[in-house]
Amino acid sequence: MIGTMAQAAPYVGYVYPNETDIPWSVLIVIYPYITGLVAGAFIVSSLFHVFGMAQYKPVARFALLTAVSFMFFVPMPLLLHLGNPQRAFNAVLTPHWTSAMAAFSYVAGFYISLLLLEIWFAFRADIVALSKTTQGPLGTVYRLMTLGSDDVSPRALALDHKFATVLAMIGIPAAGGLHGYVGFLFGSVKAREWWSSDLMPIIFLLSAIVSGIGLLIVLYVVYSRIRKVPVDQACMKGLARTMWAFLLVVLVIEGLELLEMFYKRLEGIDMVQRLIEGPIRYGMMIQWGGSLIVLALLTVLIVFRVEGKALVRGLVISGVGMMIAVLAMRWNVVIGGQELSKTMKGLLVYYPEILSHEGLVAVAIVFTCPFVVLWLITRFLSPWEPEPS
Amino acid sequence: MTQEDKKIEVKGSNLVRRNFFLRMLGIGTACAGTWVGSGNLVARAQSAETAAAAAPKIPDYDWNKHKWAFGVDATRCIGCLRCVEACKAENGVTQDAHHFRTWVERYVYLEGDERAHVDSQSDAQNIAASGSEKEFRFDNRYKDAKVEKAFFVPKLCNHCTHPACVQVCPTGATYQTKDGVVLIDHSYCIGCQYCVQACPYGVREFNHVMGVTDKCTWCYHRITKGLQPACVEVCPVEARVFGDRNDPQSPISAFLRNNRVSVLKPETGNAPNVFYVGIDKEVC
Ligand code: SF4
Ligand code: SF4
């Protein structure tokens, strides 16, 4: 309920009295998670738009729409979490620049603008065609969306392509920046032992890409089913390899980070160990177990050149698996960091609420919205190439 | 009472009750606004400093003339918790065992133990002993134990010279005054709680009714009128010392001159301005 505190977190050992009121709820778990999905989806579209990898063409435009649909909802969990959301603009109008959080609206605003621009160039020819064939109010919307530019000569289209490429090129560092930035929000908090790591931005970024590719695979297969068209095999194979590569790197880096932490055994390591064995035990199992299983599965798919239905099935399992594993990773970081007391003498346990504006139902609603919006957008602007008849 | 005084002295009486509609309205407009945020160059021109309040207009007070600091003599503290109760009453702090501007920790070494047993007034057993979450006392659990060493450590905001909370506040609602106090503008705070995360000392707490973060102000509304902070005033054994470092005769100047002091968690680089006497390595 608004105006009251969630249930006080139970604890063991000694924690500062104020710590029993856990500041960042499960909503803040979903925030970096959604941002990550955006970054991952975007990277896939860039593989085609920037690097010209033709096998990703079938999903390139769909990936852009996926990215923007999720990006629209990135601010949502943050706003729901604020004690005074009606003042959110204070951080925009008078940003306090020493704060990483002050940059949020600018980073997010820049990225959304970039995405919308890139989408416009990538879809302009379609929009022009639709504006000519669609009647009624919808036709007017399409005509407005052409922004008065209805030249679809080969020269103009080539120019579109060039613009889309340039925007995608800017988009890669921007996507990296967007998510590296989220990692920085956590990694720069020196008061939190479990967050304060120089590797946080890079780990966040890489795991984001893996989860985004996973999402894209699942969505692509589901949409293909709905459209009753075969899934593009070359595209699937490409996605399998990309996901495998990013997953491998992220596992190595995360593994090295843990290894170093436990090898150095700096003060407080006992508590970190108890955190891993205690409150975030299941989270860690899902994160690491899930990632390793997916890695093994992907390796099998790639090494044995699995094709057809088996490949699709294997990849959907991998995609879902990575989405769950990365969600667990976000939980382990965001919640785990707060469960480790700043006293380094105690552990708290966070139980999410169910019905409040910071509860699981709110999270489920926030997370459903991008899927609905994506579905609406694809009805309005089909990202799929016309079927060769 | 001037406007600024009111702002600083946030009492239970002037709590702003937000309603659900406002909240939803805010979410809607802000959500839409984020999309156009990057284009808002005019807004960007307004610097962060405008967020920090200008010098409060307090009669006969010039914040350039003072440098406040706080001392804690842990060897004197008897754990009576009058300071905790006085603070809650003076500052309208949420009346439960999870929100404090100041608190007291108890460190007990039993015979043969290497590590101290630590608890505070919030500990469930202590709450049971006091019978409510509005009054506080330490229970008598070590009555029959062989205690080797025991002491109390009062805690409060350190009003750090390099405060992590100020650094991370996205709006400038948390700011540092010229006289060395760290304050929160409750009319500007958006309630993101980034500062709660960033404070290494756990001294920040969230006021769920107002939707803003709160913490010790060294009773800024009192000290700027020549009074002592409420906790210092009520401490029966002078374990808490407060004063102006610019005045060599002040209690804090004498305290710092006459004692070998330490600060909490110096490794964070926060450079606290609460100075301790009589704490040991176990104090967190
Ligand atoms: S003790 Fe914490 S809240 Fe107080 S000034 Fe230092 S960092 Fe800020
Ligand atoms: S909650 Fe803290 S960091 Fe956030 S706006 Fe308020 S004072 Fe600043």
List keywords for this structure.
heterodimer; A: 389 residues; mainly alpha; Formate dehydrogenase/DMSO reductase fold; two-stranded antiparallel sheet; 2% strand; globular; B: 284 residues; three-stranded mixed sheet; three-stranded antiparallel sheet; 10 helices; 10 strands; 18% strand; binds iron/sulfur cluster
Give an overview of the whole structure.
The complex is a heterodimer of chains A (389) and B (284). By secondary structure, chain A is an all-alpha fold. Chain A is built from 13 helices and 2 strands; from the N terminus they run E-H-H-H-H-H-H-H-H-H-H-H-H-E-H. Chain A has helices spanning 27-49, 57-72, 75-81, 90-93, 104-133, 136-145, 154-187, 200-227, 233-264, 269-277, 281-303, 308-339, 360-380, and strands at residues 11-14, 345-348. In chain A, helix 5 (104-133) runs antiparallel to helix 7, helix 9 (233-264) packs across helix 11 (281-303) and helix 11 runs antiparallel to helix 12. The termini of chain A are far apart. Chain B has 284 residues and is an alpha+beta fold. Chain B is built from 10 helices and 10 strands. Chain B has helices spanning 3-8, 20-36, 41-45, 82-91, 124-130, 164-168, 194-198, 220-223, 230-234, 251-258, and strands at 68-73, 102-110, 117-120, 147-156, 174-176, 182-184, 205-207, 212-214, 240-244, 274-277. In chain B, strand 7 (205-207) and strand 8 form a beta hairpin. The longest helix of chain B has 17 residues, at 20-36. The two termini of chain B are 39 Å apart. The chains are: A mainly alpha (389), B alpha+beta (284). At the A-B interface, helix 3, helix 4 and helix 5 of A face helix 2, strand 3, helix 6, helix 7 and strand 7 of B. The structure holds iron/sulfur cluster (2 copies).
CATH architecture of chain A: Up-down Bundle
Global Rg of chain B: 20 Å
| Distance between the amino and carboxyl termini of chain A | 56 Å
Which term fits the overall shape of chain A? globular
Number of helices of chain B: 10
User: What ligands are attached or bound here?
Assistant: iron/sulfur cluster
Helix content of chain A: 55-70%
CATH H-level superfamily of chain A:
Formate dehydrogenase/DMSO reductase domain
Overall average pLDDT of chain B = 85
Report on the biggest sheet of chain A. 2 strands, antiparallel
Instruction: Quote the average pLDDT of chain A.
Output: 94
Please count the beta strands of chain A (DSSP E, at least 2 residues each): 2
